[in-house]
């Protein structure tokens, strides 16, 4: 895999696992995160052609700097993975303005900035691949305690589809993909706003490495929309079918 890949939210979880896998397959990887100590450890695991860029993806200027630094290091960017995200554990009737603002800033604006800031480079090259990491809760808002997160991921899904439609009108070789994992055994749950259950202890989960393999396959064979577990699409269809019949 002779490609340059930028992975945001790469200090742990899905981002770190994906960067490590891509690095072992020959990719040159820029790992991006806010936590320098954990990021350095993740870079070492991603192989000799990996670099660290310490940046906050919720700040547009830092996203712009990340694009510049990745290009300076590797000459160009082939794939940009928007993987920054954070959950919440609060019922919708109890949400504060700040709760919603945090969910939108972390889960939506970070991805929007990434797409917008790398797009001129992709347009100049005539090719590129944007990958946004969403969630099954962005398909099925079935956990009220995750309400603001559910809403943010639904927003991200729509934004991804609309961005794809716009860009491919003029640049059909710029791909835009959405990945929807379910429960993943990471620290996501315990780092949620207002706490929450440990995702590593929940049933029907998968490892970050499994998700990383799906992302790696997606880079090799781009598609608009992928799930990370077999049967996930049928679960989504069944969820909406259970809500009622067409009039």
Which helices and strands appear, and what pairs or packs with what?
Layout: E1 4-8, H1 13-24, E2 28-33, H2 36-45, E3 50-54, H3 60-74, E4 79-82, H4 97-125, E5 128-133, H5 147-170, E6 174-180, H6 208-220, E7 225-227, H7 232-241
Parallel strand pairs: 1-2, 1-4, 2-3, 4-5, 5-6, 6-7
The run of helices and strands is: EHEHEHEHEHEHEH
CATH A-level architecture:
3-Layer(aba) Sandwich
How many alpha or pi helices? 7
The amount of helix comes to: 40-55%
Spatial strand arrangement across the major sheet: 3-2-1-4-5-6-7
Explain what the structure shows.
The chain is of the alpha/beta class and about 250 residues long. It has a single domain (about 5-240), classed as NAD(P)-binding Rossmann-like Domain (Rossmann fold, 3-Layer(aba) Sandwich), CATH 3.40.50. About 45% of the residues lie in helices and about 15% in strands. It contains 7 helices and 7 strands. It has helices at about 15-25, 35-45, 60-75, 95-125, 145-170, 210-220, 230-240, and strands spanning about 5-10, 30-35, 50-55, 80, 130-135, 175-180, 225. A 7-stranded parallel beta sheet has the order 3-2-1-4-5-6-7, with helices on both faces. Helix 1 (about 15-25) links the parallel strand 1 (about 5-10) and strand 2 (about 30-35). It is globular, with a radius of gyration of 17 Å.
């Amino acid at each position: 895999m002779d490609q340059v890949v930028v992975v945001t939210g790469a200090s742990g979880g899905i981002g770190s696992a994906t960067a490590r896998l891509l690095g072992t397959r020959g990719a040159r990887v820029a790992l991006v995160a806010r936590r320098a100590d954990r990021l350095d450890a993740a870079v070492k695991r991603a192989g000799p052609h990996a670099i660290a860029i310490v940046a906050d993806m919720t700040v547009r200027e830092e996203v712009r700097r990340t694009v510049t630094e990745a290009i300076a290091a590797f000459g160009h960017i082939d794939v940009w993975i928007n993987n920054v995200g954070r959950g919440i554990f609060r019922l919708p009737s109890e949400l504060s303005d700040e709760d919603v603002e945090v969910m939108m800033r972390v889960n939506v604006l970070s991805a929007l900035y990434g797409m917008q800031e790398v797009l001129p480079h992709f347009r100049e090259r005539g090719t590129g691949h944007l990958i946004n990491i969403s969630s099954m809760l962005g398909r099925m808002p079935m956990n009220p305690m995750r309400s603001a997160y559910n809403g943010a991921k639904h927003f991200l899904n729509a934004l991804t589809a609309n961005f794809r439609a716009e860009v491919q009108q003029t640049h059909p070789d710029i791909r835009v993909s959405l990945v929807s994992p379910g429960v993943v055994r990471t620290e996501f749950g315990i780092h949620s706003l207002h706490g929450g259950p440990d995702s590593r202890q929940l049933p029907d989960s998968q490892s970050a490495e499994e998700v990383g393999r799906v992302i790696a396959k997606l880079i090799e064979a781009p598609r608009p929309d992928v799930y990370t577990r077999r049967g996930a699409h049928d679960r989504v269809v069944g969820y909406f079918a259970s809500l009622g019949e067409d009039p």
